[in-house]
Amino acid sequence: MHIIKVWDPLVRIFHWSLVAGFTANALVTDPEGKPHEVIGLALFALVALRIVWGFVGSLHARFSDFRPSLGAALGQLGEMATGRRRIHAGHSPLGALMIYNLIAVLLVIGVSGYVMTTYSFFGSRWVEEVHEIAVRWAEISVLAHVAAVVFESRRLGINLPKSMVTGYKTLPATGTQE
């Protein structure tokens, strides 16, 4: 076993702030209320900050460290199906696709949510539908993300949620590492 530093404080604060804000807007706030709007704008600002950090942040925070690759994601699925264990210091190929998916859908939610508050689009049904569809997709994606984190934590013997709290991954000595 060896311990490596993976997630910097900004990535970890971003992640858990996003979890708290998205959960609050999905389960607690009134979608018609001001707190929902304020939290939504804060989440949009967080995503914008994360995008900037994806270009200038620490090694594993940078988009260049986890480029989206359908081939690599299919390779990871093959590894999972055959019981091979390739351990990734940062995001795995499937994890990378999920991150890009979540950033994109959160941008759609933020833009559509903001547009609904403007005079030009206030009460526009198609904008509301885009917003609602994006929210549903984000909820499905979050559930898939949580399930994948639990599955991969068990499969690889790495406590992935703990690493998003502490910033460090404890990697087992077995398995191929990247």
From TrEMBL:
Signal peptide: none
Transmembrane segments: 38-59, 94-122
Location of this chain's protein in the cell: Cell membrane
Chief location bin: membrane
Bilayer topology: Multi-pass membrane protein
Domain spans labelled Cytochrome b561 bacterial/Ni-hydrogenase: 6-167
Keywords: Cell membrane, Membrane, Transmembrane, Transmembrane helix
Cited Pfam families: Ni_hydr_CYTB
PANTHER family given in the database record: BLL0597 PROTEIN, NI/FE-HYDROGENASE 1 B-TYPE CYTOCHROME SUBUNIT
Protein's name according to its UniProt entry: Cytochrome b/b6 domain-containing protein
Organism whose genome encodes this protein: Albidovulum salinarum
